[in-house]
Amino acid sequence: MDVKARGYACPRCTVGRCTPQTTTFVDVYHGQLLSKPNTRAYICDVCHFVEFEREMLEALWDELYGDVARDDVQTVAGHKRSPTYGEG
């Protein structure tokens, strides 16, 4: 059994444990809401940080953008996360 299947220490809060679960992936694509239910992700049991599997994100990218180079696509929003303790 690989380490990720059992979970791992949360990279955001460093207290909780990220374990495999399913949730809904939500983002904005060309001004439209994109929602992909029942998506496998690792979710922290303390701070609820969510990390989606790279394979799913790459497959979704290929479906949306096809052969367009990743550098040519401008994202609507950057990485979203809550500030950690001590950040202002």
In short:
18% of the residues lie in helices and 35% in strands. It has 88 residues and is an alpha+beta fold.
The stretches of 5 or more residues where confidence is low (pLDDT under 50) are 77-88
What number is the mean pLDDT?
79
Number of helices: 2
The top level CATH class name:
Alpha Beta
- Radius of gyration from the CA trace? 15 Å
Molecular shape: elongated
Strand content: 35-45%
What is the string of helix and strand elements? HEEEEH
User: Which fold name is given in CATH as the topology?
Assistant: Ubiquitin-like (UB roll)
Main sheet makeup: 4 strands, antiparallel
CATH architecture: Roll
> How many DSSP-defined strands?
4
Counting structural domains, the number is 1
Residues in helix, %: 10-25%
**Largest sheet, order of strands side by side?**
1-2-3-4
Structural class: alpha+beta
Give the distance, in angstroms, between the N- and C-terminal Cα atoms. 40 Å
